[in-house]
Amino acid sequence: MEINFLILLAATLIPLVVGFIWYHKKVFGAAWMNAAGVTEDSAKNANMGLIFGVTILFSFFIAFMLQAIVIHQFSVFGLLSQQPDFQTEGSESSVMLKRFQELYWGSYRTFKHGAFHGTLTAIFFAIPILGINSLFERKGFKYIAINGGYWIISLSLMGGVICAFS
């Protein structure tokens, strides 16, 4: 199964674009700064090059793994490609994969389907991780809700783009 790195790079930029809007002072930026304990001075003194660079790297990691969640065909390919005779033309596993590709390779490959799984990933994976860290950091519900909303939108859009265009 081929990986479309161009689409993954496009999906990598989604958290940045959503973040520019979501964390703008007129949207949730002021509330987030208050909930996070960030001041104007501390924000100005941050190393933004490092922050954006690591954000892009981590966003790529998320996009790379999200494709396995939103594109169901990865599971079948992963299962069959591990069979000892997979590379042998006419073997049971290679014939099964070819037949599966003919019948189902395009199934559930829509923006809507990817967005659905991206949303589920945010709700059942990203937000619990964020929530646990936030509780130990003594952050309040408002902090979790603002960041959780951001990840629901970001992962939904990332999942939709990856599923529809990969």
C-alpha termini separation: 11 Å
- Sketch the topology as an H/E string, one letter per element: HHHHHHHH
Residues in helices, as a percent range: over 70%
In total, the number of strands is 0
- Describe the main β-sheet briefly: none
Uncertain stretches of 5 or more adjacent residues: none
In the residues, how many domains can be counted?
Answer: 1
Tell me the β content. under 5%
Tell me the Rg in angstroms. 20 Å
Structural class: mainly alpha
Mean pLDDT: 94
Question: What's the helix count?
Answer: 8
Coarse shape: elongated
What does this structure look like?
- The termini are close together.
- The mean pLDDT is 94.
- The protein has helices at residues 5-22, 25-36, 40-44, 48-70, 73-80, 92-104, 111-136, 141-165.
- Helix 2 packs across helix 8, helix 4 (48-70) crosses helix 8 and helix 5 (73-80) packs antiparallel against helix 6 (92-104).
- With 166 residues, it is mostly helical.
- The chain has one domain (5-72, 108-165).
Fill in the keyword field for this structure:
single chain; 8 helices; mainly alpha
